[in-house]
Amino acid sequence: MGVLTGILSGEYKANTLSVAEQDSILGIEVTGRYRLEKENEQQIFRHSEVADWFIIDTMRHTRKQLGAGLGFGPVRDAVLSPNGRYVAFAKDNNLYIHKLDFGTEIAVTKNENTDIISGVADWLYEEEFGTTALFAWSPDSKMLAFVKLDETEVPTFSWDVYADTQYPKAESLRYPKAGCANAKASVCVYDVATKGILTMQVNKENADVYFPRLKWYNESTLFVVRVNRDQTKMEVFSCNAKSTVAYPWYREESKQYFVDYSLFDEWLWLSDGRMIVLNEQSGWRQAYLYGTDGIKIRALTPEGIDVTALYAFNEKSQTLYYQAAPTPATRQIYALNSKKGDITQLTKDEGMWSARFDKEANKAVFCYQSFETPNTYYLYSKNKLELIEDNKEVREAWQANGLPEPQMLNINGLEAMFLSPKTLSSKPLIVMHYSGPASQRVLNRWRKRFEYALVEEGYAVLIVDTRGSDCKGRAWRNETYMQLGQKEAEDLIMAANEIAKRDDIDGEHMAIMGWSYGGYETLYTMSTKGHPFKAGVAIAPVTDWKLYDSAYTERYMRRPQVNDRGYEAASLLNKAADLTGNVLIIHGTADDNVHVQHTMQYIHALVEADKQFEMQLYPDDNHFLRKGNNAAHMHNRILNFLQNNLKQ
User: What pTM value is reported for the model?
Assistant: First the structure.
């Protein structure tokens, strides 16, 4: 169990350079008298946390706790204003401002109704739009824009907490499931001088929409990203923060696919008012130059390759620096001369390259990793790379285990990685996967996880990306749109059957395992006629998409009201009688993401179908199962299950 212990303890985790360290290397100075520090972080959900935030006065050498003036303890999402005179932060469902000049604190909003949330994400926005702070300072620090969410009509989901109490204690949250009521959203702007709040005219019709992003264009113009409920249309509104008038500056709509709102995060604003926009309207993620009027001027990057990040634009040389995927499993960094159209690949080694540029786009810190190489940092300047950190000790510690590195495969169009013990001629096979839309597990990166413990135990491992995975163009990403489950199962079965043709694989003893969407797809595959798996492990599985949250599910399935057949075909509750093979189902009882209700409804269906199964519950733990000794216990439970089903 040496490798498993090392993985769980983080022994093989590569060192990273912090933002502050990269700033120092790039010569980016942190100016201003005040800075923020936090300690005693307490996690709320996946991204959110409350903490004791402190204001550091570098001139007077003082340290003051944020929120103390209002009698608060821990607060969340503290953001210093651009002029360094204010700090905006949240407590519970309200926004507040600390005025550094006077040391005073005032309330921006005064919501007494706990179902009204100002400036911070509800559970849905945090989980599915990857944000916790739904507020932003204007460049001149005179206004604070924020999203207001009214959860009054959102249904409540509750669960019991069992530990350390004579009677279970109920916990609950507002959780909109597929087809159910979402929070009503609006966008507001607070004027620091007048203390007035205006509502922007981006939702006059009170439509069922999302506002996942806010970004100030200048001192008086706010860009608001609006996405319709089905996520087939994204609009970027230009709002006059003083008059509240808004007009659609950019619009993207699809009749057959979802629109990826998150590409807005990559847009670059040029000094002359033009923008470099990333979208996938051509069928590939491409960068385009847009004018100040919101009209597309021309494409900058070519079709046939997905751009995955826009880093910086050098105004002097008119050079765009970006990341793209020349193959689905790799990332390289490129420089595009926008005048000539010439593209130069700046990185060569196969693997994952990323970058962080200085403000003028003259220098950058490049990070490289691969199967064999942990995070390795370089300074990029004048077209040269200078080594900063190579994590040699981590690499050598891992290499001492003598385990094989993955072999990259393409199995009838599917990207895959194969690991196999160096000994034994015929080995049981474990297929590991996630299989969710626009996801990837097959990447040439430094990732030492449970698959290596399986190899150490004598199993061969195949990791597969099914149809619907990322970085192979928009059509491939949407292969499973409106019909989750079926095509992914077909791909997993095909890949397992193909790899079982090898002489070193025991095709009679194969298992499949996955977590979350991967748990769902594991059970779906084992309910598909003719599958080759003797056993399967499903961790925190979705079992019916009507039970999962609205934003994720409807992005790929639309609402049950318009795709009922798709939901019925995708439900595991309707497939319990078709399950064959031995399964281990694992779930945390306090999972706020994929509720344990999924597992409970599914095992009820299995019982009614007279299907036997194994189950492992972890009381009061969430979707990630890291509480106490749960991770180690779970991995050993899986190893024991595989031993009993594949080696006896």
Answer: 0.96
